[in-house]
Amino acid sequence: MDVEAVLQKVLQRIRPTDEERAFVEGLMGELRGIAEETTESLGLDVKPYFVGSLAKDTYLAGDHDVDLFLAFPLDTPLEELREKGLELGRAIAERLGSYEIAYAEHPYVRARYKGVKVDIVPCYDVESWRDVKTAVDRSILHNRWVIKNLEGRNNEVRLLKRFLKGINAYGSEIYIRGFSGYLAEILVIRYGSFLEVLKNADFMLRRKIIDPGNWLKHEHEVAMRTVRREAEADRPLIVIDPVDPRRNVAANLSWERYGVFYFKAHQFLEKPSEGFFFGRAKKSGSYLAELRRKGTHLVTLVFGAPDLVEDILLPQLERSARGFEKALSREGFKVLGWNVGHEGSKAFIMLEVDRREREKVRIKPGPEFFTERGQDFYRKNERVWIIGKRLFAEKTVKEDIAEVILELLEKNQVAMGKSVRENIRNAKIMLDYVPKELEDEAYLFLSREKWNLKG
What we know:
Belongs to the tRNA nucleotidyltransferase/poly(A) polymerase family. Archaeal CCA-adding enzyme subfamily. This protein is of the alpha+beta class. 45% of the residues lie in helices and 21% in strands.
């Protein structure tokens, strides 16, 4: 199947239908009305804005999350914005149904309305990057810039977003470190189409700097500070935010996620198929067979997951896994790889190691050589010597990796994430065995299918 035919088939699945569009437009109209009425009833000077993919019409079919921003005048003190913003958000949410308070830079409200998730976020009513006071303020400027520059290429953005989701490289959250939706929109605007973005995967990486707002010309000093800072941090891409020269839109993009995009872009252009957009079913197999094939061993720590959002929990687990890797290598075990995650209320750290046991030499002091016990000590030990009048021997003992881990934890010799430290101390340690619910995860980890670029 040629590439255009593939893209048309994919678009049929990811482009919102007319009914869906009507639902979304109706929903946003209702929410705007509720927000305006509630604002007026509280006597606040606040403008409601919709931001995100729904407002920019770059959303995928079935993905209707709403971002409703409540923009306060620039002269509002930050403390007042937080307090009044939360009060207004709550008042709006009470008219919608169920809601909860969530926390980012400042508190905001998460509600549900007609089966759709609605984030209600206070911000400042900014006109330029110089007005930005909180991290969320730029979203209004992002919206305006994308709507102004997209010029009908909405479906090209949809294709790129769906492709990135399909290859597991979408989302700038710290536990994914992939491409954000805004970055996908910028790349389509910069290169013109989904296919051109893929064709430029290599060029982008070599050129390194993308400056769609032409800041290097208009705000050279500020933009160069951003470039130097991000180059020093060794980012794969530096995309100077077209609405703010101080920011790299690709700051959270990791080398691993860009690498996945790089290879998959080449593979798709060589042999296009729908599979790239919707992900292939992960292979399954026996983790025990993998251990036999490789001759390695698996250590799994399972413990209660603290009540944290994923973008805090997963980095803490990763930090702890790296801590075990370092601590065990100091103790003579080779860690060949690690994997972390959580299933329901349980979190886990998996470590693939070269062996389960290590031999350790100990010096064993014995009795005086001229006694009966001395004779007995001499007969029982292989290497024996005298210091003064006492006998000493060298003893080789086998130590199990689980015992070593327990000792390391007891002596506080593993660097761990502070929010998971106590939970890990109470972990259940398993050797070459995992609970049934982690069998697939163990197989994907040990076989490297979880990250296999050719899979």
